[in-house]
Design goal:
single chain; 42% helix; 206 residues; 8-stranded mixed beta sheet; 8 strands; alpha+beta
Length: 206
């Protein structure tokens, strides 16, 4: 799930590895980045409570899944969660994580579970890097921070000779990812009258 608003402008911050001390700051950045994302609006339909719910959502995913098993990087106003091929089974939200998320997903918890199961069932069979989350605070969008994080992860995948996969529910982001070499593989309609999710792939570059 990505909401990049990355572009080809000059990078304004250098990506660095995230640590446990960054959890609060990253969660706040991503809550602002995804406040208007179609999937997040579907999971958290109440505008008044969405910012706090998103903060809790990203805190849970970061601490339980992506910091332990993924590669998490941040700049001042953006963050990205990547998963290497060998860690992808572990980085899928487990039952305990889903139960914790259910506290603020409410009646959307079953839909979230169905999305997790659908994503696991349709995961690419080829070895690949997975871009799980990419977002930039709206106050810093179009300043190159999302692009810097995207380039950082793509460089790792290219060095390994592996493709990258992602999903996005925001149609305007498709052109952004195409700029970086991604192509749409499939349009998926989420359950419960949910939004469209586009799966994308980028072939490795030498």
């Amino acid at each position: 799930m990505t909401n990049a608003n990355a572009n080809a402008n000059t990078d304004t911050s250098t990506p660095r590895a995230a640590t446990g001390e960054d959890v609060g700051a990253i969660s706040r950045v991503l809550a602002r980045a995804f406040e208007d994302d179609p999937m997040m609006c579907w999971f958290f339909p109440e505008e008044a409570t969405r910012p706090a719910a998103l903060g809790s959502y990203f805190t849970t995913l970061l601490t339980r899944q992506y910091l332990p098993y993924g590669l998490c990087e941040r700049t001042e106003h953006a963050a990205a969660f990547w998963v290497a091929p060998e860690a992808q089974e572990k980085a899928v939200p487990d039952e305990e994580t889903i139960r914790e998320l259910a506290d603020f997903l409410g009646d959307r918890a079953d839909w979230f579970r169905q999305c997790v199961e659908a994503a696991a069932a349709s995961a690419p069979q080829e070895a690949h890097w997975y871009l799980a989350v990419l977002g930039a605070d709206p106050v810093a969008q179009r300043r190159g921070q999302g692009a810097a994080l995207l380039r950082s992860g793509l460089a790792r995948a290219d060095a390994a000779g592996l493709p990258v996969h992602l999903e996005s529910s925001k149609a305007e982001n498709l052109a952004v990812y195409r700029h970086f070499g991604f192509e749409v593989l499939e349009e998926v309609r989420l359950p419960g009258d949910g939004p469209t999710l586009w799966t994308m792939r980028r072939a490795p570059r030498g």
